Every structure is written in C-alpha cells, then in structure tokens.
C-alpha cells in the first residue's frame, strides 16, 4: 500500500468518525420521518395521476365501443336499404374504432394493474410511516433515558467518594470518642458515689469499734449500795489513764500509716 493510499484511508476514517459524532439520533429520526412523508406525498400524487389516466382511457374505450356499435347499426341499415357500398364504408369505420378499442383495452388493463400496485405501495408506505413514528417515540424515550444515565454516571464519577467516605469515618470516630468519654464520665461518677458510701460505712465501723473499745477501758459503774474504794486505789487511777492514752496514741499512728 502506497503512502497516498494510507493517507487517504486515515482521512476517510477521520471524516467518518466526525460524521458519526455529528449525527444526532433524534434529528436523524425526525429527518427520516420527514423524508418518508415526502415520499408519501409524491406517491399519492402518482396514484392520483394514474387513476386519472385510467379514467381517461376507460372513457376513450367506452367511446370507441359506442362508435363500434353505432357503425355496426349503420352498416345494417345500409344493407337493409340496399346500399352495399355505404354498408362497406360503415364497416370500414367500425373496423377503425375496433382497432382503437383494442389498443385502449390493452392500455386500460396495464393502467389498472399499475394503479392497483401503486395503491398497495401507498398503503404499505402509510403503514411504515405509522410504524416509524411509533419507533421514533420509543427510540426518543430510550435516548432520553440513556442520556440521563450517562449524565448520572458522569456525576458519580466526578464525585470524590474517597474523601466523602473518609469524612464520614472521621465523624463516626469523633462520635465514638464522645460516647466513650460520656460513658467513662458516668462510670467515674458512679464509682465516686460508691466510694463515698464505702467511706461512710467504713467510718461507721471504726466509730463503732472505737466506742466499744472505750466502753471496755472505762471502769465499771459502782452501785449505790457498794462501798467506796479504799483511798490507796485512787493513786493508781492516773496510771490507768496514762496507759489508755498511750494505747490511743498508738492506735492513731497505726491508722495514719494505713
């Protein structure tokens, strides 16, 4: 293949591609319908002309038949009157119309066949145009749907889905963190309340134990009828109080170390 042939093929291919891109399906359908309707108008005119020609030929044929019958009667009348020469002329005129009538009959038969064919073609073209209009509406609807789908797909492709999804993920993570902080705050508040009640219970137990210890360390109550202790025992009471105070100080130190 020569260089010029290759260039020609490339140019032809590019032109075809441009033509295909320039074709609008809706406009092409409308143009096709218009062309079919123009053909229908021309075909109707052709059918009308053919029918008119058929009518003229039919009239001419009927006129020729009438002339044949007339000259047939004239020939018979001439023979009845004994004029054989006039009868011969009448028959010659009859023969002329007979030949014309035969030609008109052949033409009339041909025209009748043509008219019937044109009528069938007219009916078929009308049916095709009706079908084409229906298909045109269906194709237009499909074209509209295809354009809408193409536009929607373009919008979907144009959307930055990764950034949008990452934004949703960040928002979800923030919500989860906030929920976790709220839950932790609730747990801490509950634990603090429980610890306060536990301290109250613990301090109550210690107070009860301290009161019991004090009760054990106190001297027993003397009845009214019991005799008073001898004077020598009063000197030992301060020593017992010192022992008690020392034990209390030791107990406090142990509590402070806990």
Question: Can you describe what's shown?
Answer:
This protein has helices spanning 3-22, 25-80, 84-158, 161-217, 237-257. It is an all-alpha fold. The protein folds into two domains: 21-158; 167-215. Helix 2 runs antiparallel to helix 3 (84-158). The longest helix is centred in the middle third of the chain and has 75 residues, at 84-158. Residues 249-258 have a biased composition (Basic and acidic residues). It comes from Nostoc flagelliforme CCNUN1. Residues 201-258 are annotated as: Disordered.
User: Between the first and last Cα atoms, what is the distance in angstroms?
Assistant: 107 Å
| Radius of gyration over all CA atoms, rounded | 65 Å
User: Strand count, sense and closure of the main sheet?
Assistant: none
Number of domains: 2
Total strands: 0
Low confidence ranges: 231-239
Order of helices and strands: HHHHH
Identify the notable features of this structure and list them briefly.
single chain; about 260 residues; mainly alpha; 2 domains; 5 helices; about 90% helix
Fold blueprint:
Layout: H1 3-22, H2 25-80, H3 84-158, H4 161-217, H5 237-257
Region (Disordered): 201-258
Biased composition (Polar residues): 223-239
Coiled coil: 47-81, 108-149
Describe what is shown at a glance.
The chain contains five helices and no strands. It has 258 residues and is mostly helical. It folds into two domains: 21-158; 167-215.
């Amino acid at each position: 293949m020569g260089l010029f042939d290759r260039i020609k093929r490339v140019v032809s291919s590019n032109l075809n591609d441009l033509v295909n891109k320039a074709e609008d399906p809706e406009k092409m359908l409308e143009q096709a319908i218009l062309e079919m309707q123009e053909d229908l108008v021309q075909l109707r005119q052709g059918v009308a002309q053919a029918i008119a020609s058929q009518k003229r030929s039919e009239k001419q044929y009927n006129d020729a038949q009438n002339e044949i019958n007339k000259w047939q009667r004239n020939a018979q009348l001439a023979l009845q009157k004994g004029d054989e020469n006039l009868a011969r002329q009448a028959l010659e005129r009859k023969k002329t119309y007979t030949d014309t009538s035969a030609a008109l009959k052949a033409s009339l038969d041909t025209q009748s066949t043509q008219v019937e064919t044109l009528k069938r073609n007219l009916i078929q073209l009308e049916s095709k145009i009706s079908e084409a209009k229906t298909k045109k509406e269906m194709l237009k609807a499909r074209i509209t749907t295809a354009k809408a789908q193409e536009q929607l797909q373009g919008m979907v492709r144009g959307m930055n889905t990764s950034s949008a999804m990452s934004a949703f993920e960040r928002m979800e993570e923030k919500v989860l963190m906030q929920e976790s902080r709220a839950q932790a705050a609730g747990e801490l508040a509950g634990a603090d309340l429980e610890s306060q009640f536990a301290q109250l219970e613990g301090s109550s137990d210690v107070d009860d134990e301290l009161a019991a210890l004090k009760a054990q360390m106190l001297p027993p109550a003397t009845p009214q009828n019991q005799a008073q202790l001898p004077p020598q025992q009063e000197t030992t009471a301060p020593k017992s109080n010192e022992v008690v105070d020392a034990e209390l100080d030791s107990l406090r130190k142990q509590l402070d170390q806990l």
